[in-house]
């Protein structure tokens, strides 16, 4: 029997493959409309106001009972800081990148850390660390393939990902984009760790087999993610990797990056991917829409299925939907606690 842990201890123990008092409940994004309104935050100010951001994201921990506190909102910070056009969405729709660069040389990042959105992330990490020392403070960041896709344009990434497997010249072009993305990744990672982040959570959505060939992921994505992961580990911080879609064909590659934990969607069979991942902890697989319209029975069933399948943490298949309700989030947390009491 493991003694009662704090949320931070629980998450870090899970990522370090050590025993836990109960399965941790974690998320990758936290832009929940109900909590934005409850905290008194105002759209779009909470994207660039650290106090508003922390007031909102912390409710996932203090009210719903999740073990991590995650910031920022969405996958646009790196892009907007580099000068790309971003549509800011609405209170219930996350921002999205709307423009791209034509050449890697156009990407200027000398003043990246001076951008107001980046500074908000850093300040929010510091403030969360100060106010909630027992929570696992987590930075939500864009991984290298996806960031390269944001820089060059998603359609261009898709085309180049095929061409680069056929022609060395095109592969060189791809690596030029990836190299720029990695430099930005490292600058941001170091700043987040210095600010006090306990975990870095990387989403590499554009590395999904739904968008690029598994061969591309193994040849380009895995080395890039591993280089970034090694850098993060050298900073003394664990990291998690999420890739969207049915990642069964690439789970072995994801596990080989050195990530401390993997996050998967509901499209995969948990018992299958946990077997492939081996000792690397896997989380996810719960349909996010259940937090919007699921019944207690459906949520509990999905939680238990994922944990019975070998998940080491309970997590939705993607980020927490903006229209999630607090009562459903609490049902999720309770289901994990009940399963843990029975099985651990």
Average pLDDT reading: 97
Structural class: alpha/beta
In percent terms, what proportion of residues is strand?
5-15%
Proportion in helices: 40-55%
**Number of beta-strand segments:** 8
Distance N to C terminus: 8 Å
Q: Give a short account of the largest sheet.
A: 6 strands, parallel
Categorize the overall geometry. Answer: globular
Tally of helical runs = 15
Q: Please state how the strands of the largest beta sheet are arranged side by side.
A: 1-4-5-6-7-8
Helix and strand element order: HHHHEHEEHEHHHEHEHEHEHHH
How would you portray this structure in words?
By secondary structure, the chain is of the alpha/beta class. Helices cover 48% and strands 9% of the residues. The protein is built from 15 helices and eight strands. The chain has helices at residues 7-15, 33-39, 50-57, 59-62, 77-81, 116-131, 144-152, 154-163, 168-195, 214-234, 251-256, 270-277, 290-293, 296-308, 326-343, and strands at 68-71, 86-87, 96-97, 136-142, 199-203, 239-242, 261-264, 282-284. The strands form two sheets. It has a six-stranded parallel beta sheet with strand order 1-4-5-6-7-8. Helix 2 (33-39) crosses helix 3 and helix 9 (168-195) packs parallel to helix 10. The longest helix is centred in the middle third of the chain and has 28 residues, at 168-195. The radius of gyration is 19 Å and the shape is globular.
Write the layout of secondary structure elements.
Blueprint (H helix, E strand, L loop, with lengths): L6 H9 L17 H7 L10 H8 L1 H4 L5 E4 L5 H5 L4 E2 L8 E2 L18 H16 L4 E7 L1 H9 L1 H10 L4 H28 L3 E5 L10 H21 L4 E4 L8 H6 L4 E4 L5 H8 L4 E3 L5 H4 L2 H13 L17 H18 L1
Parallel strand pairs: 1-4, 4-5, 5-6, 6-7, 7-8
Antiparallel strand pairs: 2-3
Helix pairs in contact: 2-3, 3-6, 6-9, 7-8, 7-9, 8-9, 9-10, 14-15
């Amino acid at each position: 029997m493991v003694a009662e842990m704090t949320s931070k201890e629980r998450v870090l123990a899970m990522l370090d493959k050590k025993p836990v008092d109960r399965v941790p409940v974690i998320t990758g994004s936290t832009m929940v409309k109900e909590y934005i309104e409850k905290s008194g935050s105002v759209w779009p100010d909470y994207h660039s106001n650290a106090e508003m951001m922390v007031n909102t994201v912390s409710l996932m921990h203090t009210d719903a009972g999740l073990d991590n506190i995650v910031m920022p909102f969405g996958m646009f910070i790196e892009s907007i800081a580099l000068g790309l056009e971003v549509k800011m969405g609405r209170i219930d729709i996350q921002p999205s990148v709307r423009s791209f660069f034509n050449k890697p040389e156009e990407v200027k990042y000398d003043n990246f850390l001076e951008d107001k959105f980046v500074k908000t992330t850093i300040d929010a990490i510091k403030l969360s660390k100060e106010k909630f020392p027992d929570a696992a403070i987590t930075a939500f960041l864009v991984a290298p393939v996806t960031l390269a896709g944001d820089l060059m344009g998603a359609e261009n990434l898709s085309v180049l990902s095929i061409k680069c497997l056929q022609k060395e010249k095109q592969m060189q072009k791809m690596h030029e984009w990836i190299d720029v993305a990695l430099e930005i990744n490292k600058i941001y990672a170091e700043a987040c760790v210095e600010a006090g982040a306990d975990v870095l959570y990387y989403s590499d959505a554009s590395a999904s087999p739904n968008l690029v060939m598994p061969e591309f992921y193994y040849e380009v994505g895995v080395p890039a993610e591993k280089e970034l992961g090694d850098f993060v580990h050298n900073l003394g911080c664990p990291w998690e990797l999420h890739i969207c879609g049915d990642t069964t064909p690439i789970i072995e590659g994801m596990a080989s990056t050195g990530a401390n934990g993997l996050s998967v969607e509901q499209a995969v069979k948990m018992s299958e991917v946990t077997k492939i991942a081996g000792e690397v902890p896997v989380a996810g697989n719960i349909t996010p829409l259940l937090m919007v319209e699921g019944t207690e029975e459906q949520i509990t069933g999905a939680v238990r299925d994922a944990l019975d399948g070998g998940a080491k943490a309970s997590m939705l298949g993607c980020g927490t939907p903006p229209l999630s309700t607090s009562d459903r989030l609490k049902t999720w947390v309770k289901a994990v606690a009940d399963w843990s009491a029975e099985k651990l």
